[in-house]
Write a structure and sequence with these properties.
The protein is α/β, with parallel strands linked by helices and 89 residues long. It has one domain: Barstar-like (Barnase, Chain D, 2-Layer Sandwich), CATH 3.30.370.10. 43% of the residues lie in helices and 28% in strands. Strands 1-2-3-4 form a 4-stranded mixed sheet. α2 runs parallel beside α3.
């Protein structure tokens, strides 16, 4: 879903912890449209999240299904990338 916020493009992405648990980094690679060279690990996830160049809010649903390390990766990337907001529902 894309909406307009203050005349800027603003993406809201909902990701599902159940699907992450089931399909792991393949799911993340597809939902975020990461490049083919995506390393499918938390370091690569962090790097790609830090490269997001448009205001983006990521909402993780079913967060109880994923590891604390994965959630920490999203939180750390949101601190590093001022265009990225992350929250769990």
């Amino acid at each position: 879903m894309t909406i307009t916020k203050h005349l800027k493009k603003y993406d809201i992405m909902e990701i599902d912890g159940n699907l992450i648990k089931k399909d792991g980094h393949d799911y993340l690679m597809e939902v975020f449209d990461f490049p083919d060279y995506y390393g499918k690990n938390l370091d690569a996830l962090y790097d790609c999240l830090c490269e997001i160049g448009v205001e983006t809010e990521i909402v993780l649903v079913n967060s109880e299904c994923v590891s604390k390390d994965l959630i920490d990766t999203f939180v750390d990337a949101s601190f590093e990338n001022e265009l990225l907001d992350f929250r769990c529902d």
